[in-house]
Amino acid sequence: MLKKHTITLLVFPVIFLLTSCATYYQQNLKFQNHVANGELPKAKDLLEKDKGKTGKNRVLYLFNKGWLGWMMNENAESNVAFEEADKIIEDYQKNFGLEALALVTNPMVKPYKPEDFEVVMVNYFKALNYLNIGKPNEALVEVRKINEKLNQLNDKYPDHKNRYQDDAFAHIVMGLIYDANREYNDAFIAYRNALNVYENSYQKNFNMQVPEQLKWDLMRAAYRTGFNEELRFYEQKFNLKYENKPNDGGELVFFWHNGFGPVKSEWSINFTKTSSKDGFVTFANEQYGMSFPIFIGDKPDNEKSGFSQLSLLRIAFPKYLERKPVFTNAQITVGGKAYPLQFAQDINGIAFKTLSDRMLREMANAVLRLATKKALEAAADKKNENLGTAISIFNALTEKTDTRNWQTLPYSVSYTRIPLPPGENSINFSANSSSGATKNESFKFNIIKGKTTFFTFTCLESYPPAEN
Of 227, 245, 263, which residue is a domain's last? Predict the structure, then answer.
């Protein structure tokens, strides 16, 4: 039986750990429900009361604050939040004290380090904010930052083990903004880069086809730049014939954000010790064909000898739960003509693939983490049975994975380009679901001759998180 003073010391940590065992999504369910129901002012009020607005979850708070500001047309406030998030990400350095603490607790004690695609989306939303307030030059600065980040991604994965090394949709956005600013040469390069990423990465890794709109935009940019040879090449490649049609009005670029991206949860599997020799202890799982050797030294001390006494480890890992959108397709109708919104970015698919790509690394870190905790437990038990029991309870309560992620990102993004006459224009948006449900909205735009208007519409309707 634990001594009275030992129990007293454990009361507060145990209570704290029991209240923090829920996933990040579960801890913030009220906020997520407000967002999903379109109750954005309530979501904003709740966010400002969140204790996570400072400390290790600061970046996630800023992501949500920036997204809410963008949704509520508070564009300047939104960009202030995104700008701070961007600076934190740029300055991110490992805190080795927290790395050591994570090794004996869990990775959620560390500041949240965003996923690669989340980092790119920060500048995407900043660009949209600038477009909303009529600052295209500032929007161009943001898309150039996206380009810099994409180059860094390519340098980050020279072994090509990560399937998200470039972002096709980010290149499309760059092209669209260059296009709107009549920088057709840069637009052509951005569209061509987008095409290359779709063909060389997105088709294979995310089962995504090249949007038809991208093909026409690429050919138009080639024509306007005077790249006649390239135009003929792409006409043959796409089996399309480009015709330059005079436009006495302007254009509308319509983005559709559909649903919400996945949320992180956790799962666990068993690892069994298979060998212990030459200073290594090896743990393996036959079902998944995985093994992880851990070096403990040729002459382990009492703490390290705990490793050799272990026979079984049960370890938690992160996984994504999909939030399928209610609507599966949508179109814009104007003047009796329909313009399908074309699937351009699969944030849900990218999230699943990026986590899958690093799962072996996640598993290796988790094996080392729990083996270290168990070794400390065994060493403590040798010195004091009560202490060993206390550490065992602490280890059981703290074994969890990092379930944080940016949970207000859309499930997917689609887009189209629509030529419109100058003056006030009315368009109709209609979305459809597989169950027959529909969503219809009407919008009015004042189109200026020779100008491109950008607009984003978000469908918040999604199903609850579920296994993919």
Answer: 245
